[in-house]
Amino acid sequence: MNASTAASFSVMTPADLGLSAASTGRDVRLAARSGGFLGHTSGLAAEYVQVNLAILPTELAGDFLRYCQRNPKPCPLLGVSEPGEWTLPDLAEDLDLRADVPRYRVWRHGELVAEPSDLHGLWRKDLVTFALGCSFSFEHALLADGMRLRHVDEGRNVAMYRTNIPTRAAGVFHGPMVVTMRPLKAADAIRAVQITTRTPEVHGAPVHLGDPALIGIRDIMKPDYGDAVEIRSDELPVFWACGVTPQAAIAAAKPAFCITHAPGHMLVTDRLNQQLGRS
Amino acid sequence: MNASTAASFSVMTPADLGLSAASTGRDVRLAARSGGFLGHTSGLAAEYVQVNLAILPTELAGDFLRYCQRNPKPCPLLGVSEPGEWTLPDLAEDLDLRADVPRYRVWRHGELVAEPSDLHGLWRKDLVTFALGCSFSFEHALLADGMRLRHVDEGRNVAMYRTNIPTRAAGVFHGPMVVTMRPLKAADAIRAVQITTRTPEVHGAPVHLGDPALIGIRDIMKPDYGDAVEIRSDELPVFWACGVTPQAAIAAAKPAFCITHAPGHMLVTDRLNQQLGRS
C-alpha cells in the first residue's frame, strides 16, 4: 500500500486549502483537523518541525522507549505524551493528536487495517504518543544552503525503503531500518553529510550512499513507501534513517492495537527547524 | 614519472633506517638529511603533521600567496619562510629545508628536470618556502576512528590524480585541482566526511566521491602520482583536494625556476596531528 496513492483520493489540494511552504504548523494542523486536508506534508510549513508518530498502549510504552533509545538515528525522540492525553505541550499549542495528522494508520496484530483521517472513535485512555524527528526538518537546512531536492521540486512525497540494516531490538520491538532517499550530486552529498550531522534530533548524517543493493534495496524505482524519483547519471542516491522504521517494528512485533501516522503524512509542530542542532 | 618508482631505487627501506609510524618528525627529517632515506612518508611518524612544499623565487611569492588564499582546499597554508631562509620556526625546530625532504623536484620553465634528495647546490637567497597541509594528517584521525586505509595497510603511497576541477587563478598560477583517493565503504565515507570536515587546515572534507569520470579521471587504476589501489565492489572512491595541486599550477605557469617536494615524499614537522582542528 502506497501512502501517496491514498493521498490522491483527496479532492482538496494543499493549494486549494491555502497551504504552502510558507504556512505555519498550526495552519497545517487546523486544515487536517477540519478533515479537508488528507495529503502528505512534504514541502509544507517548511519552517516548522514535522514529526513521525507512534501511538501505543501503555503496556508497550516501556519497550518502545528503550527501542528509541537504542536506535537514535531512525527513532530520535522529540516528545512523549502523558497516557491518554492528546497533547504534546513541548511541541505545539492548540494540538489534538486525534485529528491533526492528515492521515493515520491503524494496526491490529501487526496488520495495517485502516487509514483514517481522525481517531475520535479509536482513542483510548491507555494510549501514549511518541513523536520522532523527521527528515523534512533537515531538508529545510539543505534547501537553505542552496541545494535542490527533486521530490520537493516535483511536489512528491519522499521515497522510503525497507533495508537489510537491522535495528537493535528492545522487548517486542525489532526489525529492519527504513530509510529515505534523495538523489544528489557528489559535492551536494558531501555538503549534506556536513549539514545533517549538525542535527542528530532529525536523523543526523546519512546511513548510506551509493549502491542501493548494499543495504538490501532491490529496485530503487520501487520504494516501499512514498514516491519514486529519477536518479540521474551524475547523482548518487543518499540514504537517511527514517521515522517510519517503527512501522516495520510494529509489523514485526504485532501488538494487538496501535496507531501511527501514514508515511509522509506528518504532524506539523510549532517548533522551528532553525532551532534544531543546538543541543 | 611516478614518484614511487623513484623511491624503489632506494636501497634502504624505512624499516632498515628504524623509521615507522611511531617515529617522530625529527627522526624522519634526520634520516632524510643524512641521505639514507629517499622513500615516501605515507604511514611514517603518524602522530606528526606532514607538509607539501613549494619553494619559489621572491618575485613569484605574492602570486602564490594569493593562489593559496583563493584555493584553501588544495592549498591550506601552514607556514611561509623568510626569503632565503631554510627554516620554518612555527613548524619545526632543527629543520633544514635544503635536506630534510626525502626527495625534491626541481622545475625549470614548467618542466620537471631533476628529483634530488638535497638542495645545497641549488639554494638561492631569494627563495621563499611555502608549507601546505597534507592529507596524511587526517589519515591519522581516520585510523584513530577505527577505519582501515588500503594504501597504508599495503605500505603504498596514496593515489593522486589530476582532475577537471579548475582552481581559481592568481597571477601566473592556475590549473587543475589534484586529488588524493581512498576507497571506503559508504558508512566509512560518511564518517570520513564528518571527521575531515573538522580539519580545514589539512584539506577538510572530500571534494568528490563516486564516479571518477565526473571529475575527469579516465582510469582510476592509473594515478598521475603515487600508487594505484584496488577498489572493491562494496566501496566508493573518495577524493580529497591535494597539496600536489601547486605542481600542476607550476607546470602551467612555467616559472624559470622553482622547487617542490616529490609527491608523497613530505616534510615531516614537529607539530602534532591531534592539535589540528582547533582554529
UniProtKB/TrEMBL annotation, chains A, B:
Superkingdom of the source species: Bacteria
The record's listing under Pfam families reads: D-Glu_cyclase (PF07286)
Q: Which UniProt keywords apply?
A: Lyase
Classification via InterPro entries: D-Glu_cyclase, Putative_hydro-lyase, UPF0317
E.C. number(s) listed in UniProt: 4.2.1.-
Query: Transmembrane region positions?
Result: none
Q: HAMAP family under this entry? A: Hydro_lyase (MF_01830)
- Which protein family is it in? Belongs to the D-glutamate cyclase family.
The name of this protein is: Putative hydro-lyase GCM10009107_46030
